[in-house]
Amino acid sequence: MRRRPVESSVLSSAGWADGVLEVEFASGEIYRYLDVPDLVFRQLLRAESKGTFFQERIRDRYDLERVELD
């Protein structure tokens, strides 16, 4: 999935396609959050604090899977 860089101390990049939000954390770990509305992704990109928005509106609200890198 194509992700775009974001300004955040918590997140490095984020992308969205067909209800899947893919987030790369500053640690380098990548997770996919499932059934995330496009509106939530757009709100994340516009949030003043992307880390706070992620904690309050995404984390623990959507099913997720870790992306394993080869």
Class by SSE composition: alpha+beta
The major beta sheet can be summarized as: 5 strands, antiparallel
Distance between the termini: 15 Å
Subunit arrangement of the protein? single chain
Mean pLDDT: 97
Kindly state the percentage of residues in helix.
10-25%
Can you offer a commentary on this structure?
This protein has 70 residues and is α+β, with helices and mostly antiparallel strands. It is 24% helix and 33% strand. It has two helices and five strands. The protein has a five-stranded antiparallel β-sheet with strand order 1-2-3-4-5, with helices on one face.
Question: Helices and strands in order, then pairings?
Answer:
Layout: E1 4-5, E2 11-17, E3 20-25, E4 30-33, H1 38-46, H2 50-57, E5 64-67
Antiparallel strand pairs: 1-2, 2-3, 3-4, 4-5
Helix pairs in contact: 1-2
Brief overview:
The protein is an alpha+beta fold and 70 residues long. The chain has 2 helices and 5 strands.
Task: Quickly list its features.
70 residues; alpha+beta; five-stranded antiparallel β-sheet; 5 strands; globular
